[in-house]
Each structure stands twice: as structure tokens, then as C-alpha cells.
Amino acid sequence: MAVPARKTSKQKKKLRRMHQKMSKPEISFDASTGDYRRSHHVSLKGYYKGKKVTE
């Protein structure tokens, strides 16, 4: 069984977790509805790729 030679410091633990932080959502302008929407998501008015998909 592997046993660590030394205790891992708090700073080393934080550095290991830094790549898991949340990133901002990608927002683009939808010309068909005139609103901003998230990429690969249905707009608030129910359009996806220029087609009405919801009521």
C-alpha cells in the first residue's frame, strides 16, 4: 500500500483543484430572434437554429 512521505500542504491541494473552477457561459447574439442566448441551447422565445421548437 502506498503511503505519502510527507503531508500535502494546503497550497498544493488548492493548486490541484484550480483547474476545476467554473467558467462563464458562452453567450452569442441570435439574429433571428434579436436576443442573446447560450450556445447549443434553446432561446427564451423557443427558437433553436432559426426554427421554432417549443410553444
UniProtKB/TrEMBL annotation:
InterPro entries: Ribosomal_bL32 (IPR002677), Ribosomal_bL32_bact (IPR044957), Ribosomal_zn-bd (IPR011332). It comes from the Bacteria. GO terms for cellular component: ribosome. Transmembrane segments: none annotated. The keyword Ribonucleoprotein applies. Belongs to the bacterial ribosomal protein bL32 family. NCBIfam families: rpmF_bact. This is Large ribosomal subunit protein bL32. It comes from Candidatus Enterococcus lemimoniae. The gene is rpmF.
